[in-house]
Write a structure and sequence with these properties.
CATH architecture of chain A: 3-Layer(aba) Sandwich
Strand content of chain B: 25-35%
Largest interface: A-B, 23 and 26 residues
CATH class of chain B: Alpha Beta
Strand order of the largest sheet of chain A: 1-5-4-3-2-6
Distance between the termini of chain A: 33 Å
CATH topology of chain B: Heat Shock Protein 90
Shape of chain B: globular
Largest sheet of chain A: 6 strands, mixed
Radius of gyration of chain B: 14 Å
CATH architecture of chain B: 2-Layer Sandwich
CATH topology of chain A: Udp-n-acetylmuramoylalanyl-d-glutamate--2,6- Diaminopimelate Ligase, Chain: A, domain 1
Number of helices of chain A: 5
Helix content of chain B: 25-40%
Order of helices and strands of chain B: EHHEEHHHEE
Oligomer: heterodimer
Strand content of chain A: 15-25%
């Protein structure tokens, strides 16, 4: 599904557009977490076509996406962004949006519209 | 051989990860494979965050020599009392502030060890040094 369709489904508002052309790019996977170490531990496939959903509205959500080569981030729960994010968001090559939906709702919407969970390395938790 | 030294400031939560971001850009510029860069970036970011959360900052030394990238994270913090527990997924002693920043999942050291090709940890009540090596080719 194209990024612009995901944005429409989530009724998301753009916080920062790094690259307009990425709105036409296909994203088929999603991962949702407020714990950045869990993102770093568990996301190891499909990064280039993965949208990251998080309720964490500080700069570490962007840093985590950066380390993982994720270029599409949606902040959930309509949280007000920290000033530090707004001041430095242009350092990141990440299209960043905000949705009023909770992470659960946003995940449900995307899942029922065909976005899949990315494969995670569950053995790391065993 | 290329060597660079970076300082990480105590409790500098806003800039946490900036050194790892610089290292990532450096590796991209010299043409290291993307999947290798990602492993290094993740391990470095987690170790940098740990220095800020658990120690009082410290220094990161990045070097490349003969196809091996080495990262040394040295702090003068209180040390890790129980390494086995610290390497157990989910075990965390992170502060409330660290949790607010999205850390404290108890996956930091686990991620660092998992993504590196060689992992060495020395710790005492005078500080902790983690040395990681990655094969570039």
């Amino acid at each position: 599904m194209k990024a612009k369709e995901i944005v429409e489904l989530l009724n998301a508002k753009a916080i920062y557009i790094y690259d307009e052309s990425l709105l036409e790019k296909d994203y088929n996977f999603a991962f949702s977490s407020d714990l950045m170490s869990d993102c770093l531990a568990l996301i190891s496939h499909n990064q280039s076509e993965l949208v990251l959903l998080t309720g964490l509205c500080n700069i570490q959500s962007l840093r985590t996406a950066e380390m993982l080569d994720i270029d599409f981030l949606v902040i959930t729960r309509g949280k007000k962004l920290d000033q530090e994010i707004l001041e430095s968001i242009s350092e990141f090559n990440i299209n960043t949006f905000s949705t009023a939906y909770t992470s659960f709702e946003a995940s449900g919407i995307l899942y029922t519209n065909g976005i899949k969970a990315t494969d995670v390395d569950k053995e790391i938790l065993s | 051989m290329l060597t660079k030294k970076y300082l990480v400031k105590e409790k500098d939560y806003v800039n946490a990860g900036k050194v790892s971001s610089s290292i990532k850009k450096e590796l991209k510029e010299i043409g290291v494979d993307e999947s290798v860069i990602r492993k290094i970036a993740i391990a470095s970011y987690e170790a940098e965050i740990n220095m800020i959360i658990h120690a009082n900052g410290g220094e990161i030394i990045f070097s490349i020599d003969d196809g091996i990238i080495e990262l040394v994270f040295a702090d003068t913090g209180p040390g890790i009392p129980n390494i086995e527990l610290a390497l157990t997924p989910g075990w965390s002693t992170a502060s409330e502030k660290a949790r607010q920043m999205g850390f404290g999942a108890g996956m930091g050291l686990v991620n660092i060890k998992r993504y590196s090709d060689s992992f060495d940890l020395k710790t005492s009540t005078e500080g902790t040094t983690i040395t990681l090596q990655f094969k570039v080719f």
